[in-house]
Amino acid sequence: MGVPEEHRRGAPSKLNYSVFIVSTSRSADSSREDVTGKLAIELIERSGSSVIRKEVIPDDKEALRKSLIKASEDSDVILFCGGTGVSPSDVTPEAIRPLLDKELPGFGEIFRLLSYSRIGSSAMASRATAGVHSRSLVFLLPGSPDAVELALEKLIIPESPHIIAVARSK
After folding, report:
1. Long-range contacts of 155-158 (CB under 8 A, 24+ apart)
2. Full DSSP string of the chain
3. Cα angle, residue 39 at apex, residues 36 and 110 outer, rounded to 5°
4. Is the CB of residue 101 less than 8 Å from the CB of residue 54?
5. Contact 46/152 with Cβ under 8 angstroms?
6. Each residue's pLDDT tens digit, 1-20
7. Fewer CB within 10 Å, N side or C side of the chain?
8. Closest by alpha carbon to 18, among 83, 87, 72?
9. Domain count, the chain
10. Comparing 51-55, 156-160, 163-167, which segment has the lowest mean pLDDT?
11. Could you tell me if 130 and 118 are in contact, meaning their C-beta atoms sit under 8 angstroms apart?
């Protein structure tokens, strides 16, 4: 049996997720429906894992960093949905990258490739990335429901147990 199969065999079958919707407009107007957050929760729970935290937070570096640090205390996987574009208010990568122990550039590369097949060249504007903070796996995603669905179904849900097992191995 090869190394990937060994890690998959020893990987946890259920993970605890924290989901953060990064949006200054949504955090200011709590009456706006959060389609992205609801979809993320549905997909995660359908996979057999649990969402232990779901919050809407503003596009603010300190709020993002505090959320990451708090969530890493009890979450296997932490999702930040939003703030990964190129507008001046998009600061999720700048806030979170310095706190990552290890970055997983392959996630962003594969995500943009999959996005390109769906939406074309505008996929290059995404700064989606992933990494490990403490013992948690962290994903920075665009805020659109389609992007979150693509990332969760094709990449995050299938591979997170394996990556967690490797990241936590001695």
Report:
1. 155/107, 155/110, 155/111, 155/114, 156/77, 156/79, 157/43, 157/44, 157/47, 157/49
2. --HHHHHHHTS-SS-EEEEEEE-HHHHH-TTS--HHHHHHHHHHHHTT-EEEEEEEE-S-HHHHHHHHHHHTTT-SEEEEES--SSSTT--HHHHHGGG-SEE-HHHHHHHHHHHHHHHGGGGGG---EEEEETTEEEEEE-SSHHHHHHHIIIIIHHHHHHHHHHHT--
3. 75
4. no
5. no
6. 455 566 566 677 799 999 99
7. C
8. 72
9. 1
10. 163-167
11. no
CATH of residue 148's domain is: 3.40.980.10
Residue at 132: amino acid letter: V
Average pLDDT value for residue range 94-107: 97
Domain that holds residue 138: 3-167
pLDDT at 10: 67
Residues 112-148: tens digit of each pLDDT: 999 999 999 999 999 999 999 999 999 999 999 999 9
Spatial contact of 164 and 16, defined as CB atoms under 8 Å apart: no
Asked whether the CA dihedral 100, 92, 21, 130 is positive or negative, the reply is negative
Look at the chain and count its residues.
Answer: 170
